[in-house]
Write a structure and sequence with these properties.
Distance between the termini: 26 Å
Mean pLDDT: 94
Helix content: 40-55%
Low-confidence stretches: none
Order of helices and strands: EHEHHH
Shape: flat
Oligomer: single chain
Number of strands: 2
Length: 109
């Protein structure tokens, strides 16, 4: 969909932040998320680009094309300043996270 936004986080980046929380034992609420706000259509396009897939097969549609039982917010992005400042974990951009994922999977494009 092209009207729902989030900031996806690579699983290893999230794990780094969690380990930092265990080591530093900070209090309060932390948002663990990626460093880039994108809509889901852009996420699909970036996955296609990084993994060498056909982005022409991905079509943008509004979220209204997928009715839901429960209403969902159109923007679930998080502010990650505290993650970076107190945990020392820099949020990766979407492309950085996807490229790291591709590398970890041993996929060459």
């Amino acid at each position: 969909v092209d009207d729902v936004f989030e900031n996806p986080v690579h699983n290893h980046q999230c794990a780094k932040a969690l380990w930092a929380m265990i080591a530093k034992r900070p209090s309060g609420v932390f948002h663990l998320a990626g460093g880039e706000r994108v809509h889901r259509h852009e996420l699909g396009l970036r996955v296609a680009k990084v993994f060498g897939l056909d982005a022409g097969l991905i079509e943008a549609v509004p979220s209204s094309a997928f009715p839901s039982i429960a209403p969902r917010p159109k923007d679930t992005t998080f502010v990650t300043a505290r993650m970076e400042r107190e945990l020392g974990v820099r949020p990766l951009t979407l492309t950085e996270g996807l490229e790291e994922m591709r590398s970890e999977m041993g996929i060459g494009v």
